[in-house]
Write a structure and sequence with these properties.
InterPro entries: CutC-like, CutC-like_dom_sf. With 251 residues, the protein is α/β, with parallel strands linked by helices. It has 8 helices and 10 strands. Helices cover 37% and strands 18% of the residues.
Length: 251
């Protein structure tokens, strides 16, 4: 079982490695579903991790139908990632009609080589998952991160299983979204995926001693200024064990 942890900061990347992850997906902006992180963050993470580092190539939140300016930014981000010696990139572009934009995806995949390339959950917003599967294979993606076109992978487990069958080894199907201690066994049992993607999220208190009582969080009233997102290494280990035991048992 291959375990990929999505992380949004440097400390989370280090914690994911501590927990035994095989790979991280490095992003920024969890509230937007993940966008491209800063090059400083990518460089520091790459220098301090021995596991694979995949970087999100997504110029903004929202839909996956990009302008020519945004497409150019994606190409530049891939170039910078190659210079920083990461192992892979994560991307996806859709046409307005809900099909995979094969022309531009192929260009990005070719530009990214020799890095590995994952099609992210833009796949879950595609009109026809089986046509999207064939399109992803045609343009050269190495894997697809998907929840089975549902909000959580446990709800899309049947489709995940069908995608695994239809892929037949031509591309890797990785289950993601809502993968945790309570769901991973059912997801793996129903789909037989051999790669899982999750956050193992934890929070820790800020080290700040002075806290302005007038401002709970920058731009919000949630107190988020003093709650820092990280990864729980024990969760990583536990979820991996549950997934591997399920796969081995054939249940």
């Amino acid at each position: 079982m291959t375990v990929e942890i999505v992380v949004y900061n440097i400390v989370s990347a280090l914690k994911a490695q501590e927990g035994g992850a095989d790979r991280i997906e490095l992003c920024d902006n969890p509230g937007e579903g993940g966008t491209t992180p800063s090059f400083g963050t990518i460089e520091v993470v790459r220098q301090n991790l021995s596991i694979d580092v995949f970087v999100m190539i997504r110029p903004r939140g929202g839909d996956f139908h990009y302008s020519s300016y945004e497409f150019h930014a994606m190409k530049r981000d891939i170039y910078q990632c190659q210079k920083l010696s990461v192992d892979g990139v994560v991307l996806g572009i859709l046409n307005a009609d809900g099909t995979i934009d094969k022309k531009r995806c192929r260009e990005l995949v070719e530009k990214a080589r020799p890095l590995k390339v994952t099609c992210h959950r833009a796949f879950d917003m595609a009109k026809d998952p089986f046509q999207a599967l064939e399109d992803c294979i045609e343009v050269g993606f190495d894997r697809i991160l998907t929840s089975g076109q549902q909000p959580q992978a446990i709800k899309g487990a049947e489709l995940l299983g069908e995608l695994v069958k239809r892929a037949n080894g031509r591309i890797t199907i990785m289950a993601g979204s809502g993968v945790n201690e309570n769901t991973v066994e059912e997801i793996v049992a129903k789909s037989r995926v051999k790669e899982i993607h999750f956050s193992a999220v934890a929070t820790k208190e800020s080290a700040m001693q002075f806290r302005n009582p007038q401002i709970a969080g920058m731009g919000s009233d949630e107190g988020s200024e003093f709650r820092l997102r990280t990864v729980d290494p024990e969760k990583v280990r536990k979820i991996r064990a549950l997934a591997e035991n399920t796969l081995l048992s054939g249940s």
